Amino acid sequence: MRFGINFFPTVGPAEKPADRYFAECLRLAEVADELGLDHVKTVEHYFHPYGGYSPDPVTFLAAAAARTASVRLVTGAAIPAFTHPLKLAGKLAMLDNISRGRLQAGFGRAFLPDEFDAFGVPMDESRERFQEGVEACRRLWTEEDVRFEGRHYAFGPLTLLPRPYQRPHPAILVAAAFSPESCAAAGRAGHGLMVVPSILDRERLQGLLAVYREGWAASGGAPGAEHVHVSYECYLDEHDSSAAYAAGRAYADNYRAKLAEAVTAWGRTRSDQYQGYERLVEGVKRIDYDASLREDKLLVGTPEEIAERLRRIREHFGEVTVSLHVNSGTTTVERAERTLRVLADRVLPEFTRPREQSPAAAR
């Protein structure tokens, strides 16, 4: 298993100014690099305290690249529907060069109606725009004199500059929520997969991973070489389970409150591209912290308890890459740093292997 940190802000100006939040996250990126963690990842969202402090993951990761040496930099995820592929491919290629080959390019479809409305993009076009955007980026990274003719984007012939540092291109990861078809397509294309266990029961997630891995095998991918990212909220107390559970509850309640506000528009929105999402408003209200703990959807407890949860996660889902939410903006940076250091010292060595040589070091 590999481990990194995922910055998903659930905070607004009334709680913490943006400059302070970014400074804290960059400090934690340095700690992750020092500790030999696998990656630093951040999201793309807009307008709401749910993710809104991160409208451009590339900007943050470029700053992180300047402060780190080896940790991978993951867009988790960039949204092709909101950025023309010529712009997106160029920004990502630039980041890949700035970091000397540490980029992993994660792409997602987005799911918040308010964001689509603000950009003037119909939600019913999201799948096509996602597919065209990812394919256009891949071709721009790997080909010259590219002529692209899609339903939503058309350009060329032209050659992208700069060329990516990694050849043939940075690893591509695809975010998926509920769709087996999306997971299978990611596997067949040879892409990595990003999933969020907190929104799925164990059996359903196991099913999604099975169809992804079947697609990966069908693409000729080596068994065990597929790349699956799973994200978990993490709250640790070195000595006291009850203190960890209480603090973790406050952390989880804040996340749920911010998510509930962000999905309100689903109460009046319908889209064939997002079947069942109209139930999100009620679904968020039913999220149960204690049940999530019992089902290992959260990494909360003492180091020993978190280690046991990770053993069960590995048993259920295999050798996945775990993205840890240790700082949503409401936790102090000191506590988040202490969590990372205790995990690195007392928990992660049981599960990790040495970090692979980066492309920069290999040259």
From TrEMBL:
One Pfam family for this entry, by name? Bac_luciferase
Q: Quick check: keyword Cell inner membrane in the entry?
A: no
Determine the domain of life of the protein's source: Bacteria
Report if keyword Acetylation is assigned: no
Query: Luciferase-like domain: from which residue to which, for each copy?
Result: 1-315
Q: Name one GO molecular function term.
A: oxidoreductase activity, acting on paired donors, with incorporation or reduction of molecular oxygen
Query: What keywords are annotated for this sequence in UniProt?
Result: Monooxygenase, Oxidoreductase
Query: GO CC terms for this protein?
Result: cytosol
Quote the protein name from its UniProt record.
Answer: Alkanesulfonate monooxygenase SsuD/methylene tetrahydromethanopterin reductase-like flavin-dependent oxidoreductase (Luciferase family)
Q: What is the lineage of its organism?
A: Bacteria, Bacillati, Actinomycetota, Actinomycetes, Streptosporangiales
